[in-house]
């Protein structure tokens, strides 16, 4: 028995899981409809795929949500997992699921996939013959990913950095790397049976004044860690920054460097896709404004040339959106995409050059770390502040970098901390901002810049 | 002056927390930020460890009500070690809605010297500075 198989047997030997029949799961993946694979949809559908968010505790409600999405012409269905499962607390998820089933109240904020089990979930996940994307936020997602693939979910979001630094205060980062390494290997193994399983990184991070170079570096590193394990289909992503120009520059640089670095590690046979998240920051309470903001996001996604867009709803500011609002936003986004034709191609050479230099300098510093493996190099780079995510709650994050918006709403670095931004780029960034103010005014600017869309 | 700060309970609202840290630093305080998801005992331990002058607790999703009832009991446990420490709390202090007239005395009764319910950050810090000046006269 291979080491991976031994590891799997241990992980799947859990009191909340049915017995795994690996031979049956393999047969299922081998014969599964190609339409269920987002990697196949990327290849065959000549359009930007539209994917909403959403997840409910009970099977019936989840099924009803999918029916709504199906009617609204969704391209990719979401499966958002509940927060107890994210923390591997399957006992609480089980209890809350029972309460949700017996009463008319939802006691969970997502679908507890492990408790439902793959035999049950597969019926739903294959019913609509559309790809499903697993959204979860779990540092230790080993059991969840096994269950997801066995259920017919062939796209897995997340990664050791992007599902940890924005979501956790003290989950050990080294463990997260090792647990995600397992996930990549399982995805790579199953990819050999049919179309590839797609892995997607979570680019929005804290969604608060994250400068493009940090987002891109983290996207590239998660991509490389994934490709290293044999994954053949990967999506890098980012969310709307608040500056149209910066979004377009960021998309171009991310795409260019994803290709560059995958070739650098000798991978030329993997498909890399670009995913764009509609505005992830604080939303306006006014639902009309929210709709305008969402529409604007769609236009930018088209200009960026995204392969997939992940939607928001006009109810964003007021809590968990209804399935009706979710379906409406899918239909509206599809409509906007249909009428957007022949967009002008905008290129900002100077900004691209500056951003590329920043990313490459940070990447070089990561690669130059003396550790023996890439994951250890990345781990050390986060630990020593070479990578620094503004507003991350995690204790390992250096939290020295400070960013503000310039007059054109671009996010600029005014304090680089230990991030090796080249001097010339740093001067350029600072020169775009008015820094002759006192520190209290600059702090007030930051507060203002966070709530910019409200 | 030294300040220990952080967000109480299982609250993970880090943006406000970072802004408090930045604002305090801009005003010249030495800041020990325990971050989000911090328990009351951790706050008091940090105050003693750093010999801080001020403990500034923040809360956004209403968890403060549940966590801060025990401030007085905790203070009693430490004898006179905490006598000169100013206890301040700010943010959105209760679940649902409530008025400041009702909430401020309640939290003062829990053991806080300064209480700011839904008050702008700068106003709160102005008040803190005023309070410290008066006290040290």
Task: Please describe what this structure looks like.
Chain B: Residues 1-137 form the B12-binding domain. Chain B: Keywords: Isomerase. Chain B: It is an enzyme of class 5 (isomerase). Chain B: InterPro entries: Cobalamin-bd, Cobalamin-bd_sf. The complex is a heterodimer of chains A (454) and B (137). Chain A has helices at residues 3-12, 22-31, 38-44, 59-71, 83-86, 90-102, 113-116, 118-127, 142-151, 173-191, 212-228, 244-264, 287-304, 323-339, 349-367, 374-383, 423-431, 439-450; strands at 49-51, 77-80, 132-135, 155-157, 198-200, 233-239, 271-277, 308-310, 402-405, 411-415. In chain A, the strands form two sheets. Chain A has an eight-stranded parallel beta sheet, with helices on both faces. The longest helix of chain A has 21 residues, at 244-264. The model of chain A has no long low-confidence stretch (mean pLDDT 95). Chain A is of the alpha/beta class and 454 residues long. In chain A, strand 4, helix 10 and strand 5 form a beta-alpha-beta unit. The radius of gyration of chain A is 21 Å and the shape is globular. Chain B contains six helices and five strands; from the N terminus they run βαβαβααβαβα. In chain B, helix 1 (14-26) links the parallel strand 1 and strand 2. The interface between A and B is medium-sized, with 20 and 16 residues.
Quick structural gist:
Chain B: Residues 1-137 form the B12-binding domain. The complex is a heterodimer of chains A (454) and B (137). Chain A has 454 residues and is of the alpha/beta class.
Key features of this structure:
heterodimer, A: 454 residues, eight-stranded parallel sheet, two-stranded antiparallel ribbon, B: 137 residues, alpha/beta, 45% helix, 19% strand, Coenzyme B12-dependent glutamate mutase GlmES, E (Epsilon) subunit (chain A), cobalt (chain A)
